[in-house]
Amino acid sequence: METEQNLLPLLRRCPLFEGLSEEALRDRVLPRGTLRRCSKNAALITPGETVDWFAVAAAGRVQIMQLFADGTGSLMDALGPGQVLGAELLCTRSRRAPYYAIAAGEVQILRFPGSLLLEEDGGLTDGDRAAVWRALLTLLAQENMRRHYRIAILSRRGLRDRVLTWLTMQARRRQSRTFRAPFSREELAAFLCVNRSALSHELSRMEAEGLIRFRKNEFTLLSAGESQSAWSTLE
Questions:
Q1: 144 and 88 in contact (C-beta within 8 Å)?
Q2: Contacts 24+ apart (CB under 8 A), 228-233
Q3: Residue 227 above 60 pLDDT?
Q4: CA 158: distance to chain centroid?
Q5: Cα(101)–Cα(42) distance, rounded to whole angstroms?
Q6: 87: which of 54, 188, 219, 222 fits an S-S bond (Cβ 3.0–4.6 Å)?
Q7: Percent of the chain clearing pLDDT 70 (strictly above)
Q8: Which residue in 121, 101, 124, 103 sits closest to 16, CA to CA?
Q9: Considering only 13-22, 68-77, 88-97, which range has the smallest mean pLDDT?
Q10: Where are the alpha helices (DSSP H) in the chain?
Q11: Is the pLDDT at 188 greater than 60, yes or no?
């Protein structure tokens, strides 16, 4: 788990602060942060909550979820160390969250007041704030594209087409047919809005048919998959 001594390297690899100098991170950003520890399944954000802060994940994983009355859930994203939580909510009029942010295990976050981004006297120089806002715009655009891709995946009717579409997008993003999935099997099932056992069964069938190879979270998308509709929709 992170300690106060190694939070500066964490900020250096956070994309939100990539345009800031070492001095700015050490003297103007880090002192505004508060390290918080959260136990497994703790809710960091709940729907309807007004969020006037943002955080950098320091250790563990934070799941961005939609949870439904029947006990099922849909995974929108999973954040690891260096990724940013809550900043997009500061850019909305209401700042009210439409989702849950749940600790997938023991989690640490470095939490900052929203004023650091929003206010001229929040602690950053004008140049620092301009650099952070440029980075935030990029992060928001990337998040918008991820949601577009997820809509494209969920629009596929069959389980196999959803899996192949997701695998294809991952392979193209990494420019390699072999890659490590960013989700656990349970998270992937929630992301695809399918049953975990059905997903595991379908993956085994696809491997038996020569479409993929996989071991735990490492996948190889084989050339046989090119004949599937998932490939043609992404040309």
A1: no
A2: 228/160, 228/161, 228/164, 229/161, 229/164, 230/156, 230/161, 230/164, 230/165, 230/167, 230/168, 231/164, 231/168, 233/152, 233/165
A3: no
A4: 25
A5: 8
A6: 54
A7: 92
A8: 124
A9: 68-77
A10: 7-12, 22-24, 87-90, 115-118, 126-154, 159-174, 185-192, 196-208, 229-232
A11: yes
Token pair belonging to 109: 């976050």
Work out the end-to-end distance of the chain between its first and last CA atoms, rounded to an integer number of angstroms.
42
- Give yes or no for residue 2 having a pLDDT over 70: no
Tell me the percentage of the chain whose pLDDT exceeds 90: 84
Q: How confident is the model at residue 3 (pLDDT cuts 50, 70, 90)?
A: low
The single-letter DSSP state of residue 19 is T
Closest to 207 measured CA to CA, from 153, 152, 167, 154: 167
Q: Which amino acid is at 170?
A: Q
Closest CA to 140 of 117, 158, 161, 119: 117
Judged against a pLDDT cut of 90, whether residue 181 lies above it is answered with yes
If phi > 0 it is left, if psi is from -120 to 50 it is alpha, else beta; for residue 153 that is alpha
Residue whose token pair is 């998959």: 225
What's at 219, amino acid-wise?
F
CA distance 135 to 227: 39
Candidates 36, 37, 43; CA nearest to 73 is 43
Can you give the pLDDT at residue 5?
A: 60
Q: Name the one residue in this structure whose structure tokens are 């952070």.
A: 132
Please give the full DSSP string across 55-99, using - where no structure is assigned.
Answer: EEEEES-EEEEEE-TTS-EEEEEEE-TT-EESHHHHTSSS-B-SS
